[in-house]
Amino acid sequence: MGMIGNLARVTDEQLRGLYQRPEAIQEMLYPDMQTAQPTAKQGFFSRLFGRKAESQQVVSAATGGLPSEDQIDLDKAWHTLHFLFTGSAWEGEFPQGFLVSCGRSVGDVDVGYGPARGFTSEEVAQISAYLGSLNESTLRTSFDPKRLLEEKIYPEIHYQMPISEDDWGYISGAFNRMANFIQDTAKRRMALLIYIN
After folding, report:
1. Total Cβ atoms within 10 A of residue 97
2. Could you state, in order of their start, the residue ranges of all structural domains in the chain?
3. How far apart are CA 86 and CA 111, in angstroms?
């Protein structure tokens, strides 16, 4: 268990729909938690002979569940990555702060730890360009375990100094998965949702 950072790609149209009807985000992100509703009214004979109305799991046609290839998680590396990008625990300008402090909230619907935040396809292109400008070795040299502890960067584990290959592999693996996912999202001209659950 823990606080897991998630990214999901959606179309700009889907994102606009979520801003208009934020409660639909639950159906999109958590389709297994659907509610059963009757499919149709019972006819006279069904009521007369006691036949129950059939039920089905209902998902909004406008949203539905997202395909697995349109979602990734960063596990618990999201906060460390944000810190490496911004030098701050919770602040940061766009695009550097996209993981934690930027984006438009999808209403006030709690999807785990607060609402999801959305980015248009144009904003995704800017995030992708920013990530493409980063050098992994520079990120590694800015990784300071002492500062991570001082700033209470989640998950507040005691990294070794110098950083071990395993610890850096965890962070760099999350960074590379995220950068590739966002680059692909930008190529497809799709929007992005970021949320923590």
Report:
1. 17
2. 5-31+65-196
3. 25
Local structure of 163: helix, strand or coil:
coil
Q: What is the DSSP string of 68-135?
A: GGGEEEEET-HHHHHHHHHSSSS---TTTTTTTT-SEE-TT--SSSS--EEE-HHHHHHHHHHHHT--
pLDDT digits (tens, 9 = 90+) for 105-139: 999 999 999 999 999 999 999 999 999 999 998 89
Cβ partners under 8 Å of residue 46, min gap 6: 53
Cα(68)–Cα(59) distance, rounded to whole angstroms? 17
Q: Half-sphere exposure of residue 70, counting CA atoms within 13 Å on the CB side? A: 16
Write the burial class of residue 156 (CB in 10 Å: 0-12 exposed, 13-18 middle, 19+ buried).
Answer: exposed
Which is it for strands 5-10 and 71-75: parallel, antiparallel or unpaired? antiparallel
Two tokens at 174?
Answer: 């999350």
pLDDT digits (tens, 9 = 90+) for 56-70: 333 333 445 899 999
CATH code, residues 5-31+65-196: 3.40.1760.10
d(CA 100, CA 124): 15
State the pTM of this model.
0.83
Question: For residue 6, which amino acid is it?
Answer: N
In angstroms, the CA 73 to CA 148 distance is 21
